[in-house]
Amino acid sequence: MKYIIGIGGVTNGGKTTLTNRLIKALPNCCVVHQDDFFKMMGFAAVFYWSLLFQPPDQIAVGADGFKQWDVITALDMEAMVNTIKGWIENPIKFARSHGIQVTPSIEMDDAESQVHILIVEGFLLYNYKPMLEFFDKSYYIAIPYEECKRRRSTRQYTVPDPPGLFDAHVWPMYLRHRDAMENCGLQIEYLNGLKTKDEIYNQVHEDINNTLLNRL
Ligand SMILES: Nc1ncnc2c1ncn2[C@@H]1O[C@H](COP(=O)(O)OP(=O)(O)O)[C@@H](O)[C@H]1O
Ligand SMILES: O=C(O)c1ccc[n+]([C@@H]2O[C@H](COP(=O)([O-])O)[C@@H](O)[C@H]2O)c1
After folding, report:
1. Is the ipTM of this complex over 0.90?
2. Which atom of ligand 1 is nearest to the CA of 197?
3. Between vectors from CA 13 to CA 97 and to CA 207, what angle results, nearest 5°?
């Protein structure tokens, strides 16, 4: 059985934190991070360039003067969808090529008779129609403006935030995408990102376990 879990939510809501704990606890669990699909230049260019400067990107500059990172066109969503399709085609091969341990008994068995889990994690998961059909379960972590701004101010991205980016671009785009997402037709389970890391993890882990038990 294949099971795909979306962990969406606001920037710095705790998506990666939750995902990293789930990967360790769930069997045969792979992950796709949306952040890996920002439109950057080719690998070699990035490597040589980043020795001296910030990595080059292909992100458009908006009328507000800021690079528009928090829009769906900043991401290579086609490549992201193809990565998910690659996992669906052959989760064992995908796991091996991403350095995920698959237990020996599972390697010998038919993939369909085993549980294989894919977590797809990102801040714009439910705003790209071709991806919606993949999710068996869709979580969304939210935190209020003040807490989000506080956490973001300490975060180091490969490209650091210029002053003012959060209020001019990041938060307004979050509100816009969240509105659009609410009409996307998916049944989304909202998680309160102000709860402790343990509380959020326990809630989601128990929920996934119950669902998987019901499906087997
Ligand atoms: N439940 C939580 N309570 C307090 N801080 C948290 C919580 N979850 C994550 N954090 C912190 O918030 C920051 C962003 O977390 P991260 O998981 O990277 O967010 P995201 O992947 O959603 O951007 C990190 O410093 C992390 O330790
Ligand atoms: O990962 C990067 O290279 C990167 C470069 C520039 C900006 N980002 C920010 O990454 C944010 C989404 O990632 P996250 O983990 O905070 O949900 C989004 O708000 C972007 O503004 C990310």
Report:
1. yes
2. 1
3. 70
Q: How far apart are CA 28 and CA 3, in angstroms?
A: 11
**From ligand 2's centre to the CA of 72, what distance in Å?**
12
Residue 203: how many other CB atoms lie within 10 Å: 16
Of ligand 2's listed atoms, the one at least distance from the Cα of 155 is: 16
Nearest CA to ligand 1 atom 23: 12
**160 and 44 in contact (C-beta within 8 Å)?**
no
Atom 16 of ligand 2, residue of closest alpha carbon? 11
Instruction: Domains for the chain: give ranges and CATH numbers.
Output: 2-215 (3.40.50.300)
Residue 87's SS3 state is helix
| CA 111–ligand 2 middle distance (angstroms) | 34
Is 136 annotated in the active site? no
Structure tokens at 29: 């669990």
User: For the segment 142-169, what is each residue's pLDDT rounded down to a tens digit?
Assistant: 999 999 999 999 999 988 999 999 999 9
pLDDT less than 70: residues of the chain: 41-55, 103-112
Look at the pTM and tell me if it is higher than 0.90: yes
